[in-house]
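Predict both folds.
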Amino acid sequence: MTSTILFLTLLALLVLLIVAYRGDFAEPSILFVVGFTLAVFNGLTNYRTWDFDLSMQTCFVVGFGTFAFALTAYGVFPQLRRTSDSTSGIR
């Protein structure tokens, strides 16, 4: 059950990031969350074979870690782009 909640949380975060970045899939936070979302989805599709069930602590660590990474990347990368755009022009 906790794996399903983690999957839905990661999926919601992924949709939120896609909307925030206007559909640009090449953003680091989107790629980071896609990896975890696919891994949890793979675990859910094979949960009977693998006896797959994540503990609440694991779900919290993955959920909080991906959210923190996405929030940090959303705040940092636009500033890096503005800095590189202003310094890369030909004068």
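Second protein follows, with its predicted structure tokens after the sequence.
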Amino acid sequence: MKAKEQFEKTVRAVFGDLYLDSIADLYKKVETAPYDPKEAPYGGDAPAIALMRVIREKMREKGLAPRAEIKLDKKNTLENLLRTRTELLEKNETFRQLFGKTLKYDVEIMNPNDGYDFDGWNYQGIALEPEEWVVKLGKRKPSHLYYNELDHYLTYLVGAIRQNREAADSSRECGLMVLKHEIAEIKSKSECGKNDARL
């Protein structure tokens, strides 16, 4: 399935059909604005960042990402940041209700140091809120620390759309496979609910 199709399917399943309409202008820019791979090798240029910032705000609004600042000081390391994220993820009941299997994999099975961390996009010069989790670690450019696997997946798809390429095979990423299975279950339940309403 193309990255565009995966993205739209996921947004509809998680946020509802109407939400895709509400981000239509930002989404169109991701699809059509000129893209310079030298400027943003992972697809994370201005149009992509603008869209994902709005989506992440929606995630926080729906309780699918924490409304909490992730603090960084001189003693912080990537390991400490990932540990803090895991602690906040464990407390996120809304995410647990929708993505319980994904949460279980992230918290109990996946080694945080072997998983996803930053999006690799450059947020330099953008006015940001603390709860957006953009930090500058060491010599890295200021980048967003993923809230969870859903954030990771959506960001990846937006980057792939921006680069006009196919989404890579995710069969080797167990956490992502679990997430995609749960997204399919949410979509199926939603469609069944619509059919029941017609009866």
